[in-house]
Task: inverse folding
């Protein structure tokens, strides 16, 4: 199957015979500016608050994936080493509190917390992205912090051909990577076609040092990760007369991540060696997604849409750790881990949207729909070790393997009501019924069935032509991580970990309000506030002593209620007033407080690893005449704390600089270069006894792109 997928991807990257580039009638810079203006106008006119990101913005600072772009928006940041952006954290909340969609459907990602790693989607295959911080009734309810909808490239109105080739270099990995991407789109009568493929081979390095006074140890860790991503996109659109459209959206992606890591531990006082671990881990991830939709437009303006999708994500991880223990570091044993995950998602949905005229000259758009989601997850894990004499010992824990089956049926009704020329209200309610089955590898099983009613209302008030106010209130949920619900039991050296079938979903009431001042076609100043009351926040906590072993018992539990309150500011403007029309400044700042009241102790503490400050500042220069453009940006994430453990661990504030340049050589042909983490910033975690310092190096990108 892998060979077939790679051949399909290669075929997508080849230009069909007889396809010749058509002359571009409009200057590419003008087209890009128009796209930005349209995106801002769409944000302005939307009854539900959203942010739209264009293709031009995706390429501003050398971003290679969707994640590189999203981390520059208000309230958003990513966990992990600098310039390694995978798991989004909206409002600073953990991975399970947000939702990632591709073309409106949630892809299976293999993560325990239902997350999807955004480094798997290259920017070259994305048409645009939509960010919703407060969903309405037509959206899936599992989005406490919000969600991102990634819309992949669709068939263009006229022939489009793009090819790019480039390289990358991380100065700590000291390995050269390469990237090749190609795309072709055209229309043949009623049939529209968009095909493309990307192959990206990239290396990242990381160095970490740890000083632990409690254990009298120092650690030094070096890591090099190679990530090879190959993906193919095919989008077909068939117009059946004037009122019907049928679309097919297959997506294939293979990602292989190879990690080599050495961890040396020494006596802090004497400097003598204590242990050395040499780790080799290879993870293979494959996503196959096939979606189809049919849209029919009635004469009266109503629109009926039917959708269906099938997606499967497979992840296989193979890990070997060679252990050396003692001052002379003699070989002790080899540890092996093998993990297989398979996630399959199936969806079917129907939605009807109908315009109608209400009393007192009000205009409405009534939407209603049904959606069925079925998910099954299989995880199989085995562990063993081999001694210096070659003796194999099985260390597999049966409950490390499990299966989950969930079916979610949802229905919604929503009205977008234009009550006056200035006021638009969008009330709605969504009900979701979840039927879940959870079974451990040890044979224990449990069920979890519940129904959630999620009302919401959004308001848009146009104060005057360029100034408008927004407000919203709604209820959302966050389902527990997969393994947390499974009745598992794992005895470790220092604790016993168990699942908790009685876990309930976290439920949140979200309130938002703000003002937006639009400055011409491309400028904006916005300010607002938000509040989230999250009941039943799930955290892993020590709940007592395990009777059979006498060890601390750790279980996930609904720890209490959390409050997230904050304000944000956003601005985008050119510097035309001071004689620099080529310059644009973008800035945003989020200030928030997130605290949880523990249900067991009654004490309030900061939510784990939630930053109080997130800020971005970007300067762009775009000289249309010469074809030269450049960007410089900084990304700031404030201090984070973890008070779930003692002593409290503090992650110091982190500031990252990025820069990029691009020069147009001719019509449709450009060269580019960029660097992420320009000053190789230091990331620090400290609890007073243990201090971790980490550097991930600078990553350089360069290449040639052609678009016709």
Result:
């Amino acid at each position: 199957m892998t060979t077939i997928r790679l051949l399909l991807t290669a075929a997508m990257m080849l230009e069909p015979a007889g396809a010749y580039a058509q002359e571009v009638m409009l200057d590419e810079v003008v087209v890009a500016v128009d796209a930005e203006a349209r995106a801002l106008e769409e944000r302005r006119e939307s009854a539900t608050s959203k942010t739209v990101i264009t293709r031009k913005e995706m390429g501003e600072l050398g971003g290679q994936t969707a994640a590189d772009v999203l981390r520059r928006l208000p309230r958003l940041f990513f966990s992990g080493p600098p310039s390694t952006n995978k798991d989004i954290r909206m409002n600073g909340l953990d991975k399970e509190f947000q939702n990632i969609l591709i073309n409106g459907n949630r892809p299976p990602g293999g993560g325990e917390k239902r997350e999807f790693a955004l480094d798997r989607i290259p920017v070259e295959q994305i048409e645009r992205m939509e960010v919703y911080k407060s969903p309405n009734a037509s959206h899936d309810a599992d989005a406490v912090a919000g969600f991102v909808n990634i819309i992949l490239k669709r068939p263009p109105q006229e022939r489009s051909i793009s090819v790019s080739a480039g390289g990358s270099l991380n100065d700590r990995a000291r390995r050269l990577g390469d990237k090749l991407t190609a795309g072709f789109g055209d229309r043949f009568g009623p049939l529209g076609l968009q095909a493309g493929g990307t192959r990206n081979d990239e290396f990242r390095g990381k160095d970490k040092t740890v000083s632990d006074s409690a254990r009298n140890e120092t650690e030094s860790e070096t890591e090099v990760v190679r990530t090879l991503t190959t993906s193919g996109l095919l989008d077909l659109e068939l117009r059946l007369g004037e009122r019907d459209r049928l679309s097919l959206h297959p997506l294939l992606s293979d990602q292989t991540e190879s990690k080599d890591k050495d961890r040396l531990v020494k006596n802090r006082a004497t400097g003598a060696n204590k242990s050395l671990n040499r780790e080799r881990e290879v993870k293979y991830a494959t996503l196959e997604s096939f979606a189809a939709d049919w849209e029919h437009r009635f004469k009266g303006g109503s629109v009926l849409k039917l959708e269906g999708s099938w997606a499967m994500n497979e992840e296989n991880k193979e890990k070997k750790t060679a252990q050396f223990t003692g001052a002379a570091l003699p070989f002790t044993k080899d540890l092996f881990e093998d993990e297989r995950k398979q996630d399959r998602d199936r969806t079917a949905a129907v939605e009807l949207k109908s315009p109608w005229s209400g009393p007192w000259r009000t205009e409405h758009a009534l939407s209603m729909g049904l959606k069925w989601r079925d998910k099954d997850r299989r995880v199989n894990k085995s562990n063993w070790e081999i001694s210096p004499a070659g003796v194999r010992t099985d260390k597999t824990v049966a409950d490390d393997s499990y299966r989950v089956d969930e079916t979610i049926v949802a229905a919604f009704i929503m009205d977008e009501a234009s009550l006056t020329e200035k006021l638009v209200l969008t009330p709605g309610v969504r009900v979701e019924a979840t039927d879940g089955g959870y079974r451990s590898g040890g044979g224990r099983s449990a069920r979890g069935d519940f129904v959630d009613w999620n009302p919401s209302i959004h308001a848009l008030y146009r104060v005057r032509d360029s100034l408008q106010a927004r407000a919203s209130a709604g209820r959302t949920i966050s389902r527990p991580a997969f393994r947390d619900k499974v009745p598992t039991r794992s005895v470790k050296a220092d604790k016993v970990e168990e699942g908790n079938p009685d876990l309930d979903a976290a439920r949140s009431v979200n309130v938002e309000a703000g003002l937006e001042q639009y400055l011409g076609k491309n400028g904006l100043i916005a300010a607002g506030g938000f509040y989230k009351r999250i009941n039943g926040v799930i955290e892993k906590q020590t709940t007592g002593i395990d009777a059979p072993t006498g060890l601390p018992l750790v279980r996930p539990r609904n720890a209490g209620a959390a409050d997230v309150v904050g304000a944000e500011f956003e601005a985008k403007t050119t510097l035309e007033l001071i004689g620099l029309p080529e310059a644009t400044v973008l800035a945003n700042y989020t200030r928030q407080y997130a605290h949880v009241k523990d249900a067991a102790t009654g004490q309030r503490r900061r939510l784990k690893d939630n930053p109080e400050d997130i800020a971005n500042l970007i300067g762009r220069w775009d000289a249309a005449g010469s074809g030269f453009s450049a960007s410089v940006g900084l990304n700031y994430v404030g201090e984070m704390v973890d008070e779930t453990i003692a002593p409290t661990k503090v992650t110091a504030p982190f500031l990252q600089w990025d820069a990029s340049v691009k020069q147009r050589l001719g019509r449709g042909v450009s060269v580019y270069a960029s660097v992420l983490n320009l000053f190789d910033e230091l990331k620090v975690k400290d609890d007073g006894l243990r201090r971790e310092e980490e550097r991930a190096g600078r990553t350089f990108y360069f290449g040639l792109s052609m678009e016709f």
Observations:
- Residues 1-30 have pLDDT under 50 and may be disordered.
